[in-house]
Amino acid sequence: MKNNIRFDLSDYLIHFFRDVNLETGSHIYLPEHCGFNNQHHACFIDAKYLLRLSLRSHKIFSSWSYRNGQRTVYGDSPVVCFTDMPIAAYLETGVRRLERNEKIGLYAIVLPKEQMFNYGARPVIYGLDQHNNA
Fold first, then answer.
1. How many CB atoms lie within 10 A of CB 108?
2. What is the pTM of this model?
3. Domain boundaries, the chain
4. pLDDT-based confidence at residue 45 (cuts at 50, 70, 90)
5. Section 109-125 average pLDDT
6. Is the dihedral of CA 67, 70, 74, 76 positive or negative?
7. Integer Rg of the chain from CA
8. Closest to 50 (Cα-Cα) out of 13, 83, 74, 15
9. Which member of 9, 32, 49, 97 lies 3.0 to 4.6 Å from 102 by CB, making a disulfide possible if both were Cys?
10. DSSP string covering 36-99, please?
């Protein structure tokens, strides 16, 4: 699935991990039990911990994300989010967003888009409405 037309897309999907503060209104909900030796006992969860959790358990946990107390995922099921922007562009954008204290992380898992499509990953359309616009 080579992309020879658009330079803003890549042949890879990026799932990033960010620091999570469970005491804010813009956090994720993690599974109550994340596996042996993976319990978190603090309100602040480091992005490196979340990356390690995924690598140890061989899966990326789906979750709900909240902004201003409202879910940012529509529907009845939590999801795993990816971006297909080029890796260099993601890193550049990530550094700029971190400088503005936005919720993003530079720790990530990068997977081949074609293989993920074969596993069932699909593009989605998302957007904010007046209730959760940051």
1. 20
2. 0.76
3. 12-118
4. confident
5. 89
6. positive
7. 15
8. 15
9. 97
10. TT----SSEE-HHHHHHHHHHHTSPPPB-BEETTEESS-SSS-B---B-S-HHHHHHHHHHHHH
Please indicate whether residue 4 or residue 12 has the higher confidence score (pLDDT): 12
Tell me which residue has tokens 């209730």: 131
DSSP secondary structure string for all residues of 2-44: ---S-TT--SEEEEEE--EETTSSS-BPPPS--STT----SSE
Read off φ and ψ for residue 57, nearest 5 degrees. -95, -5
Cα-based distances in Å from 10 to 22, 42, 82: 32, 36, 12
Mean pLDDT of the chain: 79
Q: Are 18 and 104 in contact (CB under 8 A)?
A: yes
**What one-character DSSP code corresponds to residue 85?**
S
b/e sequence 58-85, b meaning 16+ C-beta within 10 Å: eebbebebbbeeeebbeeeeeeebbbbb
* pLDDT band with cut points at 50, 70 and 90 for residue 14: very high
